């Protein structure tokens, strides 16, 4: 047992609160990006500057939580579950940081290309909203079960189910986007824009993957062998090829237009 059990439990509670504040900040950023794109149909310089400010705040969140985790380890000498909790927090804030980075990456692409095709931008907004909704469900699942020692396998089954459902929708959105891009007149623009849009779509998908990582990290708190035995884990199809196939189709269209 930790030499400072009561202090350790109190610090755990504080870290949980800070972690969920960080999560809210990250998805405030994603919601803002979706709102701006939906309202203006374009990302302006002042919008981009706002997202840079949010990213800087995200980095400060991570630095503060990491510092608190290190301080807890050195001060409270946590063991077993308490130590795994701190490890889970440290891993999970890295996932949140990547989610925050994807916001600024998406904003940069949108600012650079300035695509004013409403239908295409609407697809991106839909992908963002779908990703946000799925991640929010995963985080709520995590929040509800964070203090429950039993049924973590059921929680993981639900996590896999949510990710599978999301990826089906993601594939459909990606196909719709690629079909829309093929109808554009300027092939060079299509190739560049499709690359940027595909990256943004991938960012939204990676958000869900990072959220699944976070759930796994917290299951690890209750079951130290979790990462060594994932017999309950369903096989998830690799969707990376979806973007590759879309880009291949773009190049085919480009070749046909050149031949003409």
TrEMBL record:
Superkingdom of source: Bacteria
InterPro entries registered for this protein in UniProt: PhoU, PhoU-like_sf, PhoU_dom
Gene Ontology process terms (BP): intracellular phosphate ion homeostasis; negative regulation of phosphate metabolic process
Domain PhoU: 32-103
Pfam families xref list: PhoU (PF01895)
Membrane-spanning residues: none
Name of protein: Phosphate transport system regulatory protein
Organism for this UniProt entry: Candidatus Malacoplasma girerdii
């Amino acid at each position: 047992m930790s030499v400072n059990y009561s202090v350790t439990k109190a610090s755990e509670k504080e870290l949980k609160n800070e972690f969920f504040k960080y999560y809210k900040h990250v998805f405030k950023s994603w919601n803002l990006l979706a709102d701006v794109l939906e309202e203006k149909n374009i990302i302006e310089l002042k919008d981009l500057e706002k997202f840079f400010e949010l990213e800087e705040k995200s980095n400060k969140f991570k630095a503060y939580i990491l510092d608190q985790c290190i301080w807890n380890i050195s001060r409270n000498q946590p063991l077993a579950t308490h130590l795994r909790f701190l490890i889970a927090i440290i891993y999970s804030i890295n996932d949140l940081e990547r989610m925050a980075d994807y916001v600024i990456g998406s904003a940069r692409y949108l600012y650079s290309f300035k695509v004013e095709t409403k239908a295409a931008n609407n697809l991106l907004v839909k992908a963002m909203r779908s990703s946000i909704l799925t991640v929010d469900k995963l985080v709520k699942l995590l929040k509800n079960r964070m203090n429950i020692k039993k049924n973590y396998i059921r929680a993981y089954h639900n996590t896999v189910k949510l990710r599978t459902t999301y990826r089906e929708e993601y594939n459909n959105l990606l196909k719709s986007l690629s079909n829309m891009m093929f109808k554009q007149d300027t092939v060079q623009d299509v190739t560049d824009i499709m690359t940027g849009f595909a990256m943004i779509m991938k960012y939204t998908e990676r958000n869900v993957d990072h959220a699944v990582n976070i759930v796994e990290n917290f299951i690890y708190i209750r079951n130290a062998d979790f990462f060594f035995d994932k017999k309950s884990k369903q096989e998830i199809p690799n969707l990376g090829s979806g973007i590759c196939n879309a880009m291949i189709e773009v190049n085919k269209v480009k070749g046909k237009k050149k031949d003409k």
